[in-house]
Amino acid sequence: MIVFTGQRRDAGTKSNVHFVIHGDENDTHIRTLADPHRRVLQRGGVDAFLMSVPKSLGPLNCVRIWHDNSGKGSSSSWFLKYIIIRDLQTMQKFHFICQRWFAVEKDDGKIERVLHVASDLEKNQFSFVLTKRTYHSVSDGHLWFSIFSRPPSSQFTRVQRCTCCFVLLLVSMFLNIMYYDLSKEAKSTNTGSLSFGVGHASPQQVMIGVIVEMFALIPSLLLIQLFRRVRPRRQQQSPLRQALHKIKPNVVNKVNEQQQKKKNKEKIWMLPWWGILIAYALCLVLVGVSILFIIARGIEFGDEKTQKWLASVISGIFSSVLLTQPLKIVALAIFFACFCRKTTSEKEATELLDDDQIGLAADEEYLHMFQNKSLFIRSSTNRAQRLSKHEISQIRDNRLKEIQIRNVIREMVLYVCFLVVLCGVIYSNRDSSAYYQVDHLRKYLLDSKQENLDFTKIATIDEYWNWLEKSLIINLRAQQWYNGDPPRSLTGFIDDKSNRLIGWATMRQLRVKAELCRQQNVFSLTCAADYSLRNEDKQSYAPAWQNQSSQIYHSSIQKAFTYQSGDALDTYVYVGDHASYGSGGYVYEFRGRLSDLQSNLSQLHQLGWIDKQTRAVIIQLTLYNPNVALFTAVTFLAEFLSSGGVFSSARFEPISFYAFTSMPQLVCTIIYMLFICYFMWLEVRLLIEMKWKYFNQFWSYVDVGIIACSWASVGIYIWRLGESRRIGKLFEKTNGYVYINLQLTSFINNALTDLLSFCCFFGTIQLIKLCRINRKLILFIRTLQCAAKELLSFSFVFSFVFLSFLCLFYLLFVSKLPECSSLLGTAQMLFEMTLMKFDAHELSEAAAFLGPFCFSLFIFIVVFICLSMFVSIISDNFRRARENVNDRKEDLSTLIIERFKRWSRLKTFTEEDRLAERDAQMRGNYYDPIEKFPDRIDQLFVALDKETLRCARVSNCNITKEKRSHCAACRLKKCFALGMNRQLIQVFSPTKLPHPRPLGLLRNDRSTLTRDQWTLLSNLINLHETETLLIQQQSLLDQESTRPIQRRGKALLVLDFFRNCLIWMESSLKRLKYFQSVSNTTRHVLLKHNIRSCSSFNGFLVTRKLVLFHEPWLTHSFYKIFDEQLLISIFKIHKNFDLNDIVIKLFLFVMIFSSNCSPLTFDQSYQMESLDSSLESLHIQDIFVTLLWKYLLYQYGPMEATIRYVILVKAMVDMISVKAQMSSVLVYEDMINETMKELERSLILQD
């Protein structure tokens, strides 16, 4: 019997696997797949078992197989591929295909299956053949992996496999070194290579390694065939053959004849035993030749060629492990699955089932040592355990909870590691010196300290020329040191002596055409409009913007009046504050000595290079600081508007072209991309499983966002790498004396920064997903989910309101306030007004009446109304989300903390905890009918609502105790005939009696309560919960919470609360048959002595459920009626109140029929009546006291039941004392007396 375990994750098991084989003639007893000498049924394992049976089973039909789930954690599950059973008498093989999980948490949750004998059609299915061939090929055909996963029955040993791998490695190194010795590859440059410290690898080197590996595969295949086709020198006789020969010699002889015929048909070429010597000799020859040539030729190689040779060797090894061998395995598996599906071709099974393979070689021994020459081991006397459905369900719940905890912990660790790597990648790309570099250049070049030379305060053309001639060109050339020394070795540096100017600076002007004015006027016939690409002037002129000129000027001056396109200038479109400017223009280059620059600028000033048609002047220069290895693209923009005026702006963009400045940065980047690939794989799996529902989840977009931004950043990085190499070649070619425009490079660098920023944003926001382990933290997300539709509707209304105010403020103050000069600025101002960060005096100065009026209108509508609506929507949905949270569902964070405490030994697992778990498991096998009664009634009425019950006969079935389950319609009809009232049955009851606390099964014997007592207990609980006191008080509190805070906490609210408690007693007593059965005198005495205390006792239960004492305004209303000392006493009673609501409700009925539950006073007129009423209600009180005491025994046991009963009596006495103090308050006493009169009229005088 051969059992194949799957290769999937957690496919192996440590549980006890049992089976029963069913045949045509006989069945086996329960057997166990076990081995006392080794572990079986491991992941990817093939286990062979020998089983004896007392009688022949005949042709097999099926196998019933299961396990007891005794393994811990993931080792309890098992994935079975298939089973092959061979009858050693008839040599017939039977296949049982499974390909399913035996696990409570996977697949269909079953741990027991029945496997039928597979037919030829099932054995030839493509999926089965493919998985079978792939499994065998990976474990035996992959040269590298088979070292660890070699089949035990294979004659190709691990030593031989390691030898072949070693020969393959050396032959690959030999072929690579021969290629590099004969080629001129080493003289080429490393264009397109990826550097790793001192080493590098190019695509050509990788391809060389892959191709050479293909050639090196040929001698390795020859060696593998030599090792596989060597016959063993000697072979021991199999113990199985010995046993079969002793049992039935004729059967063994017959088997030998069949095998001999089979071998004659299948003639396989095999080498004699000494062929192994030839194989090892060939290995030595190949190894020796390879080492000799590697040493001889490798000495002549330089560092560069050696690095390339090593890169090719390493790429070849990886291609062999990850490409060549896997492709060979998959191709052969698909070929055999498609074209060679022979049922009799069972190579992987034949190696274990064939009699020749049972024998051992001379250097092998059997794992099992048989004592007393006995081949067989007796089966264990332990009884095979089969779990019930309830046990499986309980184990499944526990297992799913463990998996959820493990997944949460793994996800937490994964996200934390991912966030650390992400921060390492992103922040390592940020140079800390960039800010200081920009800050220095901004202060240095803008001259903000000098009032007349401040670039940011330029307002006229003359001021702009003054800044050019007296500030910019002086700073572009290195001047003398502070002590008068000349700036030696600073050629090309600017005057700060730290930054070198790459090439030269350029000044580009963009002009517009002079056109006729749209509106004729007497002042001017021609006008110059604002800049646009349509009206840009692209005509070349002579100096002074003349068509022709007779004077001769310097070439740079003439070039400044000649239009050049963006392609010729290597410039791009520039986006300013007022327009987007084209890539071409009229360019002046700051080339030459300082004196030449000064004279040229002076001449341009005189020629009117900047006139009324000028709309923008862009100065661009590139600086390099060798101290911090930073390039800086500097751009000065001066915009000349048609309305008159100059608006200046400047940009300083630092750029670093170094990809990886350290090895940790490279490692973090590689790990980060591995994380992204892993996340992509998870998202693809999730998309396949969920399909269109995948796009309904918010976190799906977050995951897709981080994946898209990551891969986009890779593409941008490659783009930036290409630009940096282009600039590097140009810089190296000209030694830095060429104009290099970094505008495109800075755009690429900014795009990369933006993508990395969004990656950091998405990666950080994913930490919110970890909040789902805590119910209180998940309320935030649940609230947003509940309020999504309402917030969407509110957003439309708010958008229209905000848009209307945006138009109003923009049109009113567009020419009066700088904030309202544009729609975007107006929107920003309105948002500041919403946040109360706006100075209203500016509006008053702009418009004396409309300013304050519009401001007040905006504050009233947007802040007071709209924002209050927003807060109300959030508050209301938060309350709904909190109500929908299942409080009885165990918090996952609590479980994780509990497991951590046990793991870290901070909390010991006591005997009481073990007893509690065992009691819970044992109690789960039993069902309590009284606890299922309300649910069954609900199911009955739901069924009645859906479909009317009809009798299958003539509606006259004889319903007796024995036949009551035969006809539901007639049984219900008889119930109604006997007086069952439909209205008295609670259709949807949320109340369920909880399971008793696990203090030992003997203490919690439910037989202490009779069936009638359980029925009475259920009816009393339903009677208490049918009345709507809790709902009334909740609605009253909700109504009060909607009022403003100043109007909350009135004294009338407390009086209404006590009045409602008394009214609830009235409605409850009307439905209580025990109260209706006593006389009017007894009713009067019970109402007078007990009703007040009972209503207060029930009020404590309501306050605890509604958490009233946590409302500050409600506590404040108590202070308006009662004093502080009385309220402190009430808090103490409330604190010591029993936590079990059922006990409180039962004790309430005990108090109703007590002789006296009020402060004792002597009233002779009622002494005899009280005595008679006490005797009349004594037997009723005895019923409820007995019921309460038995329930306490059932729930807590004798000791704790006594303690809890004493605490109840103590709470009642304390409450009576408090009631006596409350009676001194006249307002409260008047309300109670008035309500009591109404109760007496309703409960006594109604008869």
From TrEMBL:
SUPFAM superfamilies: Glucocorticoid receptor-like (DNA-binding domain), Lipase/lipooxygenase domain (PLAT/LH2 domain)
Subcellular location(s) per record: Membrane
Gene3D superfamilies, alphabetized: 1.10.287.70, Erythroid Transcription Factor GATA-1, subunit A, PLAT/LH2 domain
InterPro entries referenced in this protein's UniProt entry, alphabetically: PKD1_2_channel, PKD_2, PLAT/LH2_dom, PLAT/LH2_dom_sf, Polycystin, Polycystin_dom, Znf_hrmn_rcpt, Znf_NHR/GATA
Signal peptide start-end: none
Membrane topology: Multi-pass membrane protein
Main localization category: membrane
Example of a GO MF term: calcium channel activity
Biological process per Gene Ontology, one example term: detection of mechanical stimulus
One Pfam short name: zf-C4
Intrachain disulfide bonds: 517-527
Domain annotation PLAT: ranges: 1-116
UniProt keyword list: DNA-binding, Glycoprotein, Membrane, Metal-binding, Nucleus, Receptor, Signal, Transcription, Transcription regulation, Transmembrane, Transmembrane helix, Zinc, Zinc-finger
Family: Belongs to the polycystin family.
PANTHER family: LOCATION OF VULVA DEFECTIVE 1, POLYCYSTIN FAMILY MEMBER
Name the UniProt record assigns to this protein: PLAT domain-containing protein
Species: Adineta ricciae (Rotifer)
